[in-house]
Amino acid sequence: MTEIHEECGVFGIFSPNRRSLAEIVYTALYALQHRGQESAGIAVNDDGIFTTCRDIGLVAEIFTREKISSLGNGNIAVGHVRYSTTGMDSRRNIQPLLINHYKGQMALAHNGNLTNAFPLRRELESRGSIFHSTSDTEAIAYSIVQARLGAPSIEAAVSTAMDRLEGAYSLVISSPSKLIAARDPHGFRPLCMGALPDGSVVFASETCALDAVGADCLREILPGEVVTISNDGLFSDMSHCGRTEEKLCAFEFIYFARPDSVINGASVHQARLRAGRFLAKEHPVAADVVIGVPDSGLDAALGYAQESGIPYGIGFIKNKYIGRTFIAPDQMLRERDVSIKLNPLRSTVDGKRVVLIDDSIVRGTTSRRIVSLLRKAGAKEIHMRISAPPFIAACYYGTDIDDPDKLIANHHTVEEIAEMIGVDSLGYLRVENVPCLPETSCGLCTACFDGRYPTSVPDDSSKSRFERKIHMSDERPKQEIKQT
Amino acid sequence: MTEIHEECGVFGIFSPNRRSLAEIVYTALYALQHRGQESAGIAVNDDGIFTTCRDIGLVAEIFTREKISSLGNGNIAVGHVRYSTTGMDSRRNIQPLLINHYKGQMALAHNGNLTNAFPLRRELESRGSIFHSTSDTEAIAYSIVQARLGAPSIEAAVSTAMDRLEGAYSLVISSPSKLIAARDPHGFRPLCMGALPDGSVVFASETCALDAVGADCLREILPGEVVTISNDGLFSDMSHCGRTEEKLCAFEFIYFARPDSVINGASVHQARLRAGRFLAKEHPVAADVVIGVPDSGLDAALGYAQESGIPYGIGFIKNKYIGRTFIAPDQMLRERDVSIKLNPLRSTVDGKRVVLIDDSIVRGTTSRRIVSLLRKAGAKEIHMRISAPPFIAACYYGTDIDDPDKLIANHHTVEEIAEMIGVDSLGYLRVENVPCLPETSCGLCTACFDGRYPTSVPDDSSKSRFERKIHMSDERPKQEIKQT
Amino acid sequence: MTEIHEECGVFGIFSPNRRSLAEIVYTALYALQHRGQESAGIAVNDDGIFTTCRDIGLVAEIFTREKISSLGNGNIAVGHVRYSTTGMDSRRNIQPLLINHYKGQMALAHNGNLTNAFPLRRELESRGSIFHSTSDTEAIAYSIVQARLGAPSIEAAVSTAMDRLEGAYSLVISSPSKLIAARDPHGFRPLCMGALPDGSVVFASETCALDAVGADCLREILPGEVVTISNDGLFSDMSHCGRTEEKLCAFEFIYFARPDSVINGASVHQARLRAGRFLAKEHPVAADVVIGVPDSGLDAALGYAQESGIPYGIGFIKNKYIGRTFIAPDQMLRERDVSIKLNPLRSTVDGKRVVLIDDSIVRGTTSRRIVSLLRKAGAKEIHMRISAPPFIAACYYGTDIDDPDKLIANHHTVEEIAEMIGVDSLGYLRVENVPCLPETSCGLCTACFDGRYPTSVPDDSSKSRFERKIHMSDERPKQEIKQT
Amino acid sequence: MTEIHEECGVFGIFSPNRRSLAEIVYTALYALQHRGQESAGIAVNDDGIFTTCRDIGLVAEIFTREKISSLGNGNIAVGHVRYSTTGMDSRRNIQPLLINHYKGQMALAHNGNLTNAFPLRRELESRGSIFHSTSDTEAIAYSIVQARLGAPSIEAAVSTAMDRLEGAYSLVISSPSKLIAARDPHGFRPLCMGALPDGSVVFASETCALDAVGADCLREILPGEVVTISNDGLFSDMSHCGRTEEKLCAFEFIYFARPDSVINGASVHQARLRAGRFLAKEHPVAADVVIGVPDSGLDAALGYAQESGIPYGIGFIKNKYIGRTFIAPDQMLRERDVSIKLNPLRSTVDGKRVVLIDDSIVRGTTSRRIVSLLRKAGAKEIHMRISAPPFIAACYYGTDIDDPDKLIANHHTVEEIAEMIGVDSLGYLRVENVPCLPETSCGLCTACFDGRYPTSVPDDSSKSRFERKIHMSDERPKQEIKQT
């Protein structure tokens, strides 16, 4: 029941024939909704004329039949779902970002975070550029447009721009006649390529979007690769590949990605099952039932059950209508917010020794409430197992973990945490078992668990100055409500 | 993955102290949302002044913080969620129904369906009454109001009115100073009573709503019972009890109720686990994995796995953002609609002999698509098991089953159905094992499985005339889209 | 600049051919918008199937192209605009009222107010009727429906029902196959009949609606007349005519009706010009310019100028975007609210002796502010002339005049009022010159000016009890903001 | 009844004390609503933190009480109303434009049109700038920001930027600590300065906004002047003044400005009265009544009546609820659209010789319909007089006149036009009598009447290429519907 958020999901399609593409992009974004619930957008490119629909809300709320139909036909289309990581976000940051520069007309969708966004922005502004959004995506766009002024093609401009960009970026870009996918040299965020039966080529953050639109998965975009699709065919620029180690975000396997996605050949569901199996080996315990916190703890719970031989049980019913709009009730009921989302099944846990699997503990508050619910439902013993290591460091690559000062694992031992949240025992997965997959040979970024950043990272004072400066929003900054 | 719908959920609260009740009712309706997603309403009674908020939409969409706060304080409140069974519904049918008759002022919430709605309405109209809605709830209101003219109290009027009502009704009614709960003598629909720590008494369709608001469950309202709460205490009128056999809807256990609810002392989750266990006994098969169709097939799948010893697996990922607003894509994609909602986990089923558990087959179309998805994901054998008997008859007590002519089991043998949906074997639960619970002694209505109606039922010609007559809507009748 | 409100405008059409009628009704309601800005509705009757669109808001806001098109084709249609006179109104009172009784199916639109609404409602309730709205229109509907049970036709039922109704009502009713227009025997509210080139017959509150749809005006419906149009032709029931004196509301000429309407053969614009001429004769003064308060004082100002020979000037510019939604600014600005709506033209009044014409003074506050604006713009003398007599009594026939206790003329002499609002002289029109038209022979109701009610009127204690009782609203009662 | 549109109105306020400024800006924009009905925005600057609310719609629709309150307190605020002149506009063009460049943070509101927008944009893009909107306001912002990099202050940057800008611009700009007003050297668009009693300084497009907020008018901003208000006081940079002739848009007097505004010391109402007087001298005729087409023809009609001695009459009633949302009815009714907005007063014109005053004829269609309405209402003779010369040329300074090819005066003589629109005689005002005011000494731009442009103007081929290129909209381009 992680309260940690990914920022974005991206999708792009290049069709050999002019047709209605918005439905396909819509369906793909629907499948990628878990990667961003704050806003979404589609840009359809009909022979150089870009038409877009972008708004705040869920995919199914934004894209009414009329909106989809008004997007018309096209050859290329790009889509994006977004989760905002800042309290001062606004309508201006919705993607795809449209650029109508006379040489660099494009629609751009970005997943990830630059680590040099602030100095890059400062440098661009000092040469007379104006930024309209608070997102680093605009800095990417500027870098490409300015490279384009001296580059023979848009894909060459992307490649040149990549020399200025540091950090995490999986990009899908439509120029007037081409569809381009690019991934940073570390490959922090996933990006895969697929094909539809009619010959259309698609790019997506996850394979679940390929499944949703009926595309076959061809392969991952390589770290550092720039793939360009046009009527002339597919061209791969690998000039940025192999310059550095692959560092795919480990949390994609642990929490972000949908279990039915396959990343670098590895099933996310299987990765979580195996995390559960490793947990069972690392932290065995005598118990009567293994239950998971829905939804992200369920796979690991089944893995723990399989490995340990303790029966798997359904421990909670999750209210499936919980949405962004749920109103936190008054003081008396606020204490009960977790119980509004989750209701324990007394018949599963009453009088039992329970192994409880979750994917993370951030501040500990949510875990304490879940444990308390189980106690009231009659659980005799509760042994909590976390299918990831403790969080100790901030992520600069597009994940919105809490302020490191608020992370419970930065201030307390495992024993102290166990006592604070009220469990009889607590065990975390070891870093070396993350994400514990034989099938994938890719290197993983585990910086949030061990503080070993694969790149230089912004110093915080500059970051906060930057954020203060750009506080020009269409609304008052919302009071940010965070819970663990 | 049943496409069958319950009509309503009801809730009521009587508080010894004047306070903000809307938040509590809101939280309860949130927990009852699965019983009706079309509209919702709350009526707060502040010493005889009724203030309401009723609208089309989901509970969390309708009740903004402003709306909840505008409902103000009160002593008594009533809430309702509704699923509309007709294509000609409108805003007028939203409940709670408010009656401002000088002797019978009340707010009324109803779950169920009268079987004598048409003759009752005709009789009332022929004496000069005017109906404003197309719901049978208004006929109940009329019966109570007219009984009230000669009755010493509102609860006496309810009791008198019950003599005219036939069919299914679980009612929660607020008069200016009393909260009344009543259940038809067969007890078709559930209705339970609970208490909050501050002494408030609450009524709800299911215990999951009691859990959500922090109330302890006291007991079920008895079939035929009228319970009245006022400042004078609780009064139970049992004059209609025991006149006939209890006939709780079996499908509440199989599909409607939330697994964390307890009805007549029986856990719904346990009932479904046991249905799975019975299925394993009735229809054993050699297989490698047991999977359920989310969400309602998961409990029975676990039961089947436990009884058979075949490992339980997670077979599908369900898109959790599927809402009322999902747009059916174009022709090419329409074939794919099930795959947009459900994506099979290849790593679970590839090369395996699979036992697939679902709770029902209506027309067979949905089942055929699910099976086809599993085949594409590599399933070697598929043995489908249904945790209920085949549907063969219409329900007149508040469940929206398809037209009996469209029910696949009315036209085909089990073997034919297996072939039509493409499975290697198919097995239904036997009627005598529904819902297979030792804990509950209540009689069950299984009319949709065996056609044995506990009451007389409307003849269809009168019903269709009735519906034609009352076609005065605020919109053109929507084209009804139904899928199985 | 009167703050007094009419309650309603009605329209109906019977077309010999099935066609799209909603556009015509929409256009007519648009022209009648001044008679009610709170809500509007259209009911289209397509061979007995009634489809409606009714909502809160202005006509042009409610009826989008989609809504109009969704109303489909029909033979008969009825429309209504409404101004609510109570603070506890709600969506339920929006007209046309739809009645789906098996013998009395109809859509009903009503302009006026019954004086026996309370006893009629009490009588109906005591025989078991339930009221859903707080409007007296429902009592009319009940009376018709109950009469219909024993009547040979709907028009006979209307005629019978009229025996039970007292007060003001201009009705347009669509039964499955007929369009009926009826007017109370006093003829308090106007109602006229016209014809379109294609043979359609239309009824409207004012002739301006006939002009808007391109219909020729045929004649007024007579006081007490019931006109029925069906495929059999036009039938006039005059059995209630001539029983009492005609008493058309004088304020229709003074303020309510649009100047381009013609009532009983008299031009409203001419009536106001003549009121101005009479004022000039009754209250002459030496001055440099005559100006009117927009919009309703302009005609009388021109009449005063013509009679007196003093030049006519444009004294104020009115902000034409003032709508229902204007937000009253904070304390400092609230004092300025009149100046936001009206800005005096300094070049017209600076250094001049000004005759200022308005149609009424209610509490005096607005007048005082207007006078103050003129003083600041340099007016040397201000001589106010009111084109109506002083208000001294409540209206029970559909006009929302302020509480008689708040009317300035009930507590002060003309001289005192002049001093209070800051003018150099003040003159009201004499009652015998209202509305001062040779062309019309109709009797006028001037009860608000002289307290001579043509009917018995409700005693206030019963009225307040009645209103208290029916306070069951979908919102908290709004704080009523009234200004003069 | 001109169908010609102004593009914008601007407002700014600098308050010595931190306070709620949004209400004041709201009130001012309300008074300026006639200058732009498509979108509106307010930016409040609270010590360098800019909060904005900008949306599509009317001022009173956008700024709910919640929105105004959410804008909070501040020292400086800027507001804007906008009419879009292109069919491809979108949400992105709503002003005030927010710039968050580290040296040039500002909110900018602009009225007017640059004549070198295309080459300026091309030049900026070729140096790596990216434009987000299709408005030339962004080119102004870029020019200021880039000048700011080398300028000692924001006001110095504005002054430097003005060297690059050609055409019409009245600007109000808030930097973190200053409020700046600037006007192009020709002074095409008006801009005035006023003071509130508390010492706040305000800038507005027209004095009617000063009246609305209770400010005294101090003076016009001079053509070419840059006025800066900060806590250090008021500073006027006149370095661009006097370089060229003043060329205030003549159509501001004829149509755009509100009659109660005063521009350069001249009352707009008086200017129109005098235009009417000149018309009477230039084109006298024997007639019985003089009427104006509401609203913009009324002042000139009164002037004509005064000069000629022919009585002034009220000839039309205009529906005051006509809004943006009015739906053009079907074919039969489309012919009647003018009659839905305007209804002639038969009692004024029947049997009379009528002088009809309007402010312009564009294509002639509307005039023909108005004349036809008067004929049907009985007018015996119709002598049309236009209070402006004929349109023959496009405006490049912010007025949306029709395509010159569509202007009736470009293809026909006055006699031909008279025949085409069906009048007995027709007369236009002579150019030398525009706007015919002794009080104002300012030079006027009359290019739309005589084709003498005070600046170089874009050549059309570049313009169309430019517009094609920047077609990247959030919607499909709307079919543009224009009527005269």
Q: What this model shows, in words?
A:
The structure is a homotetramer of 484-residue chains. In chain A, strand 3 (39-46) and strand 4 (49-56) form a beta hairpin. The longest helix of chain A is centred in the middle third of the chain and has 15 residues, at 268-282. By secondary structure, the first copy, chain A, is of the alpha+beta class. Chain A has a seven-stranded antiparallel sheet with strand order 4-3-5-2-11-10-12. A six-stranded antiparallel sheet of chain A has the order 6-7-8-9-13-14, with helices on one face. Helices cover 29% and strands 25% of the residues of chain A. In chain A, 62% of the residues are buried. Mean pLDDT of chain A is 87; it is low at 324-329 and 461-484. Strand 4 (49-56) of chain A pairs parallel with strand 26 (472-473) of chain D.
Please describe the structure with a list of short key phrases separated by commas or semicolons.
homotetramer; 484 residues; alpha+beta; 7-stranded antiparallel beta sheet; 6-stranded antiparallel beta sheet; 17 helices; 29% helix; disordered C terminus
**Would you report the number of β strands of chain A?**
26
Global Rg of chain A: 23 Å
Query: Structural class of chain A, please?
Result: alpha+beta
- Which parts of chain A are unreliable, with pLDDT below 50 for 5 consecutive residues or more? 324-329, 461-484
Q: How are the strands of the biggest sheet of chain A laid out side by side?
A: 4-3-5-2-11-10-12
End-to-end Cα distance of chain A, whole Å, is 9 Å
The tally of helices of chain A reads 17
Please state roughly what percent of the residues of chain A sit in beta strands, choosing from under 5%, 5-15%, 15-25%, 25-35%, 35-45% or over 45%: 25-35%
Largest sheet of chain A: 7 strands, antiparallel
Mean pLDDT of chain A: 87
Largest interface: C-D, 61 and 62 residues
Helix content of chain A: 25-40%
Query: Rough shape of chain A?
Result: globular
Oligomer: homotetramer
